[in-house]
Design a protein that fits this description.
The chain has 126 residues and is an alpha/beta fold. The protein has a domain of 81 residues. Helices cover 31% and strands 19% of the residues. Strands 1-4-3-2-5 form a five-stranded mixed beta sheet. The protein is globular. It starts with 29 loop residues before the first helix and ends with a strand.
Length: 126
């Protein structure tokens, strides 16, 4: 894990989330797809390029404790059926796409002038 929160896990399948990586004509294996989704969920949070850039610009440091807190918050949101969640903590706000386990953007407490979040269906307070 990188300090900026951008992580690259060895041995992990990359590509478009939900993309069928089976050979053409192999058929849609629902069990394989479910296993892939569960594997991605257990792999930890990813940060989009946009989120990593915003974290650097806004001076938001990610340490092991914050990553653990974020992962627990995402898992709690997942259990409740959330898809796009705003995780609000003392370090700032992290907007996370739950099915893809991806932080899509972040903002510090100082950047929350408008105090309006759109395109989310849930919020978790840390």
């Amino acid at each position: 894990m990188d300090v900026n929160g951008v992580s690259l896990l060895k041995g992990r399948i990359s590509g478009i989330p939900g993309q069928n990586i089976a050979a053409p004509g192999a058929g849609g294996n629902e069990t394989g797809f479910k296993a892939l989704l569960q594997e991605r969920a257990k792999a930890g949070l990813n940060f989009s390029k946009h989120a990593a850039k915003r974290m650097n610009e806004r001076g938001i440091a990610v340490d092991n404790q914050l990553m653990s807190d974020l992962e627990h918050a995402v898992e709690d949101a997942r259990k409740k059926g959330a898809r796009d969640v705003a995780i609000i903590g003392k370090q700032g706000v992290f907007i996370v796409n739950v099915p893809n386990n991806t932080v899509v953007t972040t903002m510090s407490q100082n950047d929350m002038k408008e105090r309006v979040f759109t395109n989310i269906d849930s919020a978790v307070l840390m």
